[in-house]
Amino acid sequence: MEDCGTILIVDHDDASRLTAVQAAVRLGYEARPTPTGDELLERLGRDRPALAIVEVELRGPVNGLEVMRQLHEIFGADLPVILVSAKRGAALDRTSGLMLGADDYLVKPLDSGELLARVRRSLRRSGPRPTNGNGHRDETNLSPREREILGLLAEGRTQGQIAGDLVISSKTVATHIQHILSKLGVNTRAQAVAMAFRRGLVQPDVRAHSLVLQTAPE
Fold first, then answer.
1. Which domain range does residue 20 map to?
2. Which residue from 88, 115, 153, 162 lies 20 to 30 Å from 198 (Cα-Cα)?
3. What sign does the dihedral 12-15-20-25 (CA atoms) show?
4. Helices 189-198 and 170-184 sit at what angle, rounded to 10 degrees?
5. Same domain, yes or no: 103 and 23
């Protein structure tokens, strides 16, 4: 692949940073490595990266979780961020990282093959999809996570239930929902679900469940 986009890499450890750079280059992306979070944020351009690999225990005033928060604030909550950590590898740490919005969480030392596979999976999940049979481009505009949340809304799930199902924060779900409404050009969740059925973005067999949404508060 050529000219696929940019992968941001921020890690103070030279060996881990090199492993991440090699994975990005192997997949055809431009790697932009930095050792600290503040340096990464200072060098950010306006172009949206394809993915970011962020160390949790960054040195300096900005830690990895704050870098992820700011990246999501700047580029949207659907930007895939892979957190990596040498010290916080317990199940609770990994779960917390995912709930805060990480797309994946890896424990150091990084295995080059596993990292490559995880990066490829995250890129595939966040990448563009072809138009549907009706010629609509919603599947291209909506990220995989947004389509997943739209499907759960169609099943009548509440914001809190979706957060629990996907192991992410309720605030992150709310951000995704706002992106869905904006991309579909509607004002309410019920309108988004109705449009999703019309355009084939969710399966018809969950239509009955969506009735719950019609009476639920927006």
1. 6-126
2. 162
3. positive
4. 60
5. yes
Same-domain pairing of 30 and 118: yes
* Domain limit, last residue, from 85, 104, 126: 126
- Contacts for 45-49: CB closer than 8 Å, 24+ residues apart: 47/6, 48/75, 48/76, 48/79, 49/5, 49/6, 49/7, 49/8, 49/75, 49/79
66 and 95, same domain (yes or no): yes
Q: Whole-prediction pTM value?
A: 0.60
Residue among 73, 142, 59, 143 at smallest CA distance from 101: 73
Cα separation, 107 vs 90, in Å, equals: 9
Is a pLDDT exceeding 70 seen at residue 151? yes
Query: ∠177-179-184 over CA atoms, to 5°?
Result: 95
Structure tokens of 112? 């080059």
**Distance from CA of residue 98 to its chain's centroid?**
10
Instruction: State the average pLDDT for the chain.
Output: 82
Using an 8 Å Cβ cutoff, are 170 and 163 in contact? yes
Q: Which of 106, 126, 146 is the last residue of a domain?
A: 126
pLDDT greater than 70 at residue 45: yes
